[in-house]
Amino acid sequence: MEQSTLKLFRITIPGLISIAVFLIFFSTIKKTEILNLKLIDYTYISFIALIIGTIYHLLEVRNLITNFSHKRIDLNIKHNIINLYIGTLTNNQQQYLYQKNRLKNIFYKIVDNDESLKRKGSLVYFNGLLWTSTADLFIISGFGSVIFLLSSVHFIYVKSVFLNWSLIMLITAFSALFFHIIAYYKHINLSNDQIEYIETHCIVQLNQITNDVLHQMP
User: Fold this and answer.
1) What is the pTM of this model?
2) Rounded Cα gap, residues 151 and 21, in angstroms
3) High-pLDDT (> 70) share of the chain, %
4) Could you give the CA distance from residue 115 to residue 150 in angstroms, rounded to a whole number?
5) Which of 215, 217, 200, 213 has its CA nearest to residue 84?
6) Number of H helices, E strands in the chain
7) 166 vs 147: CA distance, rounded Å
8) I need a labelling partner for 131 at 20 to 30 A (CA). Which of 22, 63, 90, 159 fits?
9) Averaged over 149-174, what is the pLDDT?
10) What angle do the packed helices 91-98 and 203-215 form, to 10 degrees?
11) Average pLDDT over every residue of 133-159
12) 131, 4 in Cβ contact below 8 A?
């Protein structure tokens, strides 16, 4: 999966999930089937999803869930890369490498110049999409569950329907969280697989790139 495709999906998917919740909400109020609603032109649904997803992305809503695990994934890569370096590093040198994602840049520079690592990288990108999409589903479904629960108090004539949908969305949210955690551990394993390949086949290149970075140290 190309990074450009990945970025597009990461914007579009939360938009599509939001539209689905929106349509369920209004079809419940109108007591009609979703396809009978005249709220939006379904030929433009991808464009609308893109707009919603862009706003969602700019507000960094996803970070509420992914921030912790993203830091752990990054730290795992950094620790492994610095441990592969053959040589002795002073405390100042280690601090310098940890700053400004220098260790991750070393990692990605090696990945981008090796075809086997690129192929492994495509698996990482796909798993990354699952990791972020399950986070989106958890956030939006969880929020939707609360909205539907509150709406059951106001819209008495469809109270039972709103309560049912609230329960369904709550179950969906926690199921998404479960799979998000699985995707996180899978991501760690995939990264470690790349690290092991680097240790076996690219250790000289890693040392050279790291030394080049250290030579830029003030």
Assistant:
1) 0.89
2) 13
3) 95
4) 53
5) 200
6) 8, 0
7) 8
8) 22
9) 94
10) 100
11) 95
12) no
Burial readout 124-133 (b: 16 or more C-beta within 10 A, e: otherwise): beebbbbbbb
- How far is it, in rounded angstroms, from Cα 113 to Cα 134? 31
Question: Does residue 36 register a pLDDT over 90?
Answer: no
Asked if 3 and 128 count as a contact pair (C-beta separation under 8 A), the reply is no
* Mean pLDDT, residues 66-72: 95
The DSSP letter of residue 158 is G
- Find all residues with CB under 8 Å of 199, minimum gap 6, and list them: 84
pLDDT at 41: 62
Domain ranges of the chain: 64-215
Q: How confident is the model at residue 16, as a pLDDT?
A: 95
Amino acid in the structure at residue 151: S
- Three-class SS of 85-148: CCCCCCHHHHHHHHHHHHHHHHHHHHHHCCHHHHHHHHHHHHHHHHHHHHHHHHHHHHHHHHHH
